[in-house]
Design goal:
There is one protein chain. The protein is 39% helix and 15% strand. By secondary structure, it is of the alpha/beta class. The radius of gyration is 25 Å and the shape is elongated. It starts with 16 loop residues before the first strand and ends in a 5-residue tail after the last helix.
């Protein structure tokens, strides 16, 4: 699927303008979600390298895979925020925007004169979302945080990995990505509130809080038992069978989420008598003899190839999945049907594949997202169209290196 500029509907957030002071991952993930929903994102980058992730290898023709993966649908403007003229440009832009998103440590934006108290006086309708490792309060407020730190301090890392081994961080950087979930939720709620009150507000998003909020039943299990849940590998702490099982040529996931699937699994694998057997007929009983049940399942699954097991479990309506690599996941028929990979035109790389928006709006197709911007690609356009600066003013700012 190629970009179609004739499609006019940007999305439900069309008309919402976001001033984006974020970099690396947690903040860019938040502004990416807003871009996918149709908001205009003005990404402010420092002179030189811009967002640090533009330098993260591997790099192709000067462009980093990391930056490309998190910045589709945005515009880039380069402003030197260490200069008073640059700070004034940022404040002028904030006056024209609905939302500010930033992910510096608490206090940094205040010291620059770009904190909520300052910008809300310029623009009382401004919604200001601050994303940080630990939030604006608490003893860890000023400590730097990265994805693995948030995973460790939230308890998430402690339940990930194989039983009896050291915990392993999640393969996806959820410690950062949770900012891309909770930031937009808070912003959307504040936009609704602003519709009623006419005023914006400050939003405080902590990555550690976000991961603790995702613990869900794992936290409740700790409350119930008074013990720390431990890593279970791909298995479930309370449901059996649930996880990866061996095949002739790999492994397959089986998920017996409710008791009704147990008999279907037994039928599919050729031991139907185990379905109603009183030794296995409840969730609690199977959990208490986990190793015996998993051994029964594995003994049968290893007799088949993954494709044969997919066919068997599909026929018997058993929740299952082959374990796909990233390339296979992106090219599988379901992902193709959902147009989860599309092509777009990049300023320097030409036609490139990107991951498409994950949220669909049936009946109102959106154009393919614009490519992640080259550094400063939209600087002149933004200053001209949004701040009404003339070519001489823009040239002067460039000559004094306030912009690049």
């Amino acid at each position: 699927m190629q970009a179609d500029s004739s499609a006019a509907w940007a999305g439900p957030l069309a008309g919402i303008r976001v001033l984006d002071f974020t970099r690396v991952l947690a903040g860019p993930a938040a502004s990416l979600a807003l871009a996918d929903l149709g908001a205009e994102i003005i990404k402010v980058e420092p002179p030189g390298t811009g967002d640090e992730t533009r330098t993260f290898p591997p790099i192709k023709d000067g462009e980093s895979h990391y930056f490309l993966g998190n910045n589709r649908g945005k515009k880039s403007i380069v402003i030197d925020l260490k200069s008073e003229q640059g700070l004034q440009l940022a404040r002028d832009l904030a006056a024209k925007c609905d939302v500010v998103v930033e992910n510096y440590r608490p206090g940094v934006m205040d010291r620059l004169g770009l904190g909520y108290e300052t910008l809300s006086q310029i623009n009382p309708r401004l919604i200001y979302c601050a994303i940080s490792g630990f939030g604006m309060t608490g003893p860890l407020r000023d400590r730097p945080s990265f994805d693995i730190v948030a995973q460790a301090l939230s308890g998430v890392l402690s339940v990930n990995g194989e039983p009896g081994r050291l915990p392993i961080k999640l393969g996806l950087p959820m410690g950062d990505l949770v900012g891309g979930i909770n930031g937009p939720i808070g912003i959307l709620a504040a936009l609704h509130e602003r519709h009623l009150t006419g005023r914006g507000r400050l939003i405080d998003v902590s990555l550690m809080d976000g991961l603790i909020g995702l613990l869900g039943y794992i936290a409740q299990l700790a409350f119930f038992t008074g013990e720390n849940p431990v890593p279970q590998g791909s298995q479930h702490p309370n449901l059996v069978p649930y996880g990866a099982f061996p095949a002739k040529d790999g492994a397959i996931i089986i998920a017996c989420l409710t008791n009704g699937f147990w008999a279907r699994i037994c039928d599919a694998l050729g031991f139907p008598e185990a379905g109603p057997d009183p030794a296995f007929d409840t969730l609690q009983k199977r959990r208490d003899i986990r190793e015996r049940v998993n051994g029964m399942i594995a003994e049968q699954t290893q007799l088949y190839s993954v494709d044969e097991l997919v066919e068997l479990f599909t026929e018997h309506q058993v929740p299952h999945a082959p374990i796909l690599g990233i390339q296979e996941a992106l090219t599988q028929p379901q992902a193709v049907a959902r147009e989860m990979v599309v092509e777009t035109e990049h300023e320097t790389l030409g036609t490139i594949p990107i991951v498409n928006r994950p949220i669909k709006f049936p009946g109102s197709p959106q154009p393919v997202p614009t490519a992640p911007p080259a550094l400063g690609q939209h600087t002149e356009e933004i200053l001209r169209d949004l701040l009404d600066l003339d070519p001489e003013q823009i040239a002067s700012l460039r000559d004094t290196q306030v912009i690049a």
